[in-house]
Design brief:
globular, about 15% strand, about 50% helix, about 450 residues, 10 helices, 11 strands, alpha+beta, Phosphatase 2c, domain 1, single chain
């Protein structure tokens, strides 16, 4: 027993090694705990801010539908439900009385909306202070942990890498909360007798948002709408505008099934609501009758669209100027045009992220090459869209601009050809509709 207790070099080295391993393991566990604790507090603060922003957005939408669109109470209930759910989320995540959600009772009058907006603005301020406080505390934790584990290089390296990723994600999310306000996502793409293919790619590194969008949705049992738009700029600021465009077009088209009239009204709405005066948007808007194959459409300075019938591809030229150009903004009256689809006809609409893409020598792809690719690729619309992107990546290596691609193929269940479109169902004769003859 005494021999075991007597110090020896080998026993000392063993004890030192064991102590170092204990310190290393303890340091790793402590670092992981600190990172998890700091990340959780920061994330909770971020989620609270997100809930406040969501409530502000749904308040504005409900107010717009109730007083601007004069929707009946029955149609407002789902908006009221969204707002009520947002307020419950705020309550669930509140950490103080100042952060609790304001109490409301539906229906709301104008004074109620004013009070609610003021209260939510105060919650937003409280949420921002909470977020900044969590970041400061997290910064203190990081400094303490770096000092504590300076001798443990592996742990310090892991911890620094972990926090770097955390801060990068938090900053991205923080920017989204402050400027994006939860842009509306995706499209249902479920239209009877129409097969849809789509691609949406953001050129902003580390982000899935940008200035291009597409939207496909049912208007009723026999009609669907489709939209492709490209907002000037990139990244989150442009994504803010895409949310405005999608909601505005859906609302305006719901009042009038006429794409030309919708774009005319949208131009005026864009002029009065867009925050950045240098912003402009090109877009293509169409309404398809899934029973007859008739398509009414209007476009604002959009890239050429194309229609493919068999092995032949024809361009669908723009029908009006870009929305947002000086001297035109809000003044131009867009006209609706019409084309007739037969069974198997396919429409391709893209943004300039495709036609203006460049190869390694700086040469643009161009509209003629896009039309050639459209003629050559085969398969269902989604396969065609994917194959176009494959060709683009092979040619350009890197996609340097936001990109949206939308393909629609008319596949009626009976008859090889669509019946002639009944103009009275989509546009009025008084609006001087030009019919695009692609039936030959």
């Amino acid at each position: 027993m005494l021999e075991f207790l007597r110090p020896s070099p080998s026993r000392a080295r063993t004890l030192v090694t064991f102590a170092f391993v204990l310190v290393l393991v303890a340091g790793f566990i402590w670092a992981a705990y600190l990172a998890s604790h700091g990340a959780r507090d920061t994330r909770n603060a971020f989620d609270y801010q997100s809930a406040v922003v969501s409530a502000q957005r749904d308040t504005e939408l409900l107010q717009f539908e109730q007083f601007a669109n004069h929707q009946p109470e029955t149609d407002l209930r789902f908006r009221e439900k969204f707002l009520d759910e947002d307020l419950k989320k705020i309550d669930d995540m509140a950490q103080s009385a100042e952060e609790r959600a304001p109490k409301i009772a539906f229906p709301l009058d104008r004074n109620d909306f004013d009070n609610l907006e003021t209260e939510l603005e105060a919650r937003g301020t409280a949420g921002k202070e909470r977020f900044e406080r969590a970041l400061d505390e997290n910064e203190g934790i990081r400094k303490a942990s770096n000092a504590l584990f300076a001798a443990v290089a592996l742990v310090a390296l892991f911890f620094t890498f972990f926090l770097a990723r955390l801060y990068r994600r938090v900053e991205q999310g923080r920017s989204v909360v402050e400027t994006l306000q939860r842009a509306f996502l995706g499209a249902d793409k479920d239209l009877p007798q129409v097969s849809v293919g789509s691609v949406l790619i953001s050129a902003t590194e580390g982000s899935d948002v940008g200035g291009d969008l597409f939207d496909v949705y049912k208007l009723d049992e026999h009609h669907g709408a489709f939209l492709v738009a490209d907002v000037s700029g990139k990244g989150i600021d442009a994504a803010v505008d895409t949310a405005f465009i999608k909601y505005s077009i859906r609302t305006l088209l719901g009042e009038s099934r006429d794409p030309g009239r919708t774009l005319t009204r949208f131009g005026a709405l864009f002029e009065s609501n867009i925050e950045r005066p240098e912003t402009f948007v090109v877009l293509f808007l169409g309404v398809i009758d899934t029973e007859t194959g008739g398509v009414t459409y209007a476009s604002a300075g959009h890239e050429p669209a194309w229609i493919r019938r068999g092995g032949e591809v024809r361009a669908i030229a723009p029908t009006g100027p870009i929305v947002g150009i000086d001297g035109i903004l809000g003044d131009f009256e867009y006209k609706t045009e019409v084309l007739h689809l037969r069974a198997g006809d396919t429409i391709l609409i893209t943004t300039d992220g495709l036609t203006e893409s460049r190869d390694a020598l700086g040469r643009e792809l161009g509209a003629e090459t896009v039309a050639q690719w459209f003629r050559e690729v085969d398969g269902m619309p989604q396969q065609m869209a994917d194959r176009i992107v494959q060709r683009l990546r092979k040619r350009s290596r890197r996609i340097g601009d936001d990109l949206a691609i939308l393909l629609l193929r008319y596949l009626p269940k009976r008859g090889p050809d669509a019946r002639p479109i009944r103009h009275g169902r989509s546009v009025s004769v008084s609006e001087r509709v030009h019919v695009a003859d692609v039936s030959e």
